[in-house]
Amino acid sequence: MLLKAYQTVNRGLRGLILMILAHTYMDSFTWCMDNAIALTLISPSLIIPLSTAYFTSVVLLSALIFITGFKALNNAEYHD
């Protein structure tokens, strides 16, 4: 939604960069958690709290991106 909104106002590259950053956050945290668990760098008691914090932040980030894109797209269509 955000990428489409940025494309609508001719700022597609900026939207693409934001999406790349969001996916980098999501993927890098998953990679770090997988490696930390595999290498036993974190205790098993921390896996559930860290996973909960991660998934909560991913859901909130996704919702924020969607809502921001939806509002921007509606504003762009309203001004046309």
Shape: elongated
The overall pLDDT average reads 83
Question: How far apart lie the N and C ends?
Answer: 18 Å
Uncertain segments: none
The counted number of beta strands is: 0
| Percent of residues in β-strands | under 5%
Number of helices: 3
Q: Helix coverage percent of residues?
A: over 70%
Instruction: Provide the gyration radius in Å.
Output: 17 Å
Along the chain, the helix and strand elements come as HHH
Structural class: mainly alpha
**Largest beta sheet, briefly?**
none
Task: Report what the structure shows.
- The chain has 80 residues and is mainly alpha-helical.
- Helix content is 88%, strand content 0%.
- It is elongated.
- The model has no long low-confidence stretch (mean pLDDT 83).
What is the strand and helix layout of this fold?
Blueprint lengths: L1 H7 L3 H27 L5 H36 L1
Helix pairs in contact: 1-2, 1-3, 2-3
Please describe the structure with a list of short key phrases separated by commas or semicolons.
single chain; 80 residues; mainly alpha; 3 helices; 88% helix
